[in-house]
Amino acid sequence: MKAMSENPAPHRSGLAAIVGRANVGKSTLLNALVGRKLSIVSAKPHTTRRQLLGVLQGGDFQAGLLDTPGFLRKGRDALDAAMARELASALADADAALLAAEPRLPGDVERTLMRQIAHAGTPAALAITKTDSVPKTRLLPVIARYAEEHPFTEIVPVSAAENDGLDRLANALRACLPEREPLFPPDMLTNRPARFLVAELVREKVFERYADEVPYDAAVEIDAFEEREGAAPDYVRAVIYVDKPSQKRLLIGKGGGALKEVGTLARPEIESLTGRPVYLELWVKVNSKWRRKPGFIHRET
Ligand SMILES: Nc1nc2c(ncn2[C@@H]2O[C@H](COP(=O)(O)OP(=O)(O)OP(=O)(O)O)[C@@H](O)[C@H]2O)c(=O)[nH]1
Ligand SMILES: [Mg+2]
Q1: Where in the chain is the domain with CATH 3.40.50.300?
Q2: What is the pLDDT of residues 93-142, one digit of tens each?
């Protein structure tokens, strides 16, 4: 029997920004920790462009995980500048940071981020990602070097692919958060509306399906989202904007085949997100120089 004086652990709740070099597995980590696919993932760097909040509901704690774009040293245009701002503002707003890094010694990007975290003064945990991709012996010197360079509350090797280390990472995050009443409703998963998540899923398939010349010049906007009753499928119309007519031709493909594949890949994922049957219509439009117009970037929501 528990002694009457034994208090339950205090509830903790707060925001933790997941930051790191592009392509280290930040979005994959967010999805694995929350237990739902919220943030899009691809093998190409700089997939994530906007912040996304995913709430890890831990029982006696809530970690509002902020996914951020991969660190960009020097932006080329308005989209790059907006991505860098998303990262900086996530760090500034958060109670804690989760630095994600691949299992190799810290480089310039990691050092810059450790400096930014130190400057923000927030507690930080380090996740060494993709541990399934290296022999275990490679981890020790990496962990030792990071421990020398920043006072992380904990350094946790993880593999999202093999579901390894995630419970320990969740506990490490909990320890970084302030004692506080729940900040988020108990059933809250994300701050993004279905429209945003659906547009992102289409963009993920563009990243997956095409070579580099298309994805980095593509933006997706949902211009119709009609929820229907019962068995009738919801109607979703997404427009993929690209820079040039040549990219439009590539996106559509011969006889529309390539675009059809994008739809075939995206639809089941949209259905599993909304829990509803979906009729997905895809359009491609040329909007030259959209990438350099900040106003256009923010219409992606
Ligand atoms: N082997 C292995 N691959 C992983 C793991 N986690 C992520 N990946 C792969 O790493 C690639 C990048 O993953 P993302 O989650 O998109 O990485 P990110 O850091 O969010 O990337 P950006 O948004 O572009 O900065 C994808 O191909 C993932 O499948 C892991 O635990 N093991
Ligand atoms: Mg990402």
Answers
A1: 12-176
A2: 899 999 999 999 999 999 999 999 999 999 999 999 999 999 999 999 99
3-state secondary structure of 268: helix
| Cα–Cα separations (whole angstroms), residue 230 to 17, 271, 280, 289 | 39, 14, 17, 41
Q: What are phi and psi of 107, to 5 degrees?
A: -110, -170
pLDDT digit string, tens, across residues 176-210: 999 999 999 999 999 999 999 999 999 999 999 99
Residue ranges, comma separated, of all CATH 3.30.300.20 domains in the chain are 194-300
Q: Is the CB of 23 under 6 A from ligand 1?
A: yes
Domain with residues 194-300, CATH architecture: 2-Layer Sandwich (3.30)
To test the pocket of ligand 1, the residue of 18, 21, 23 to mutate (highest count of ligand atoms within 8 Å of its CB) is 23
Q: Is the pTM of this model over 0.85?
A: yes
Ligand 1 centroid, distance to 255 Cα (angstroms) = 33
CB distance 265 to ligand 1 below 6 Å: no
List the structure tokens of 268.
């089941």
Q: Length of the chain in residues, anyone?
A: 301
CA 85 to centroid of chain Cα atoms:
15
Q: Which atom of ligand 1 is nearest to the CA of 100?
A: 19
Determine the topology of domain 12-176 in CATH.
Rossmann fold (3.40.50)
Give, using CA atoms, the residue closest to atom 16 of ligand 1: 41
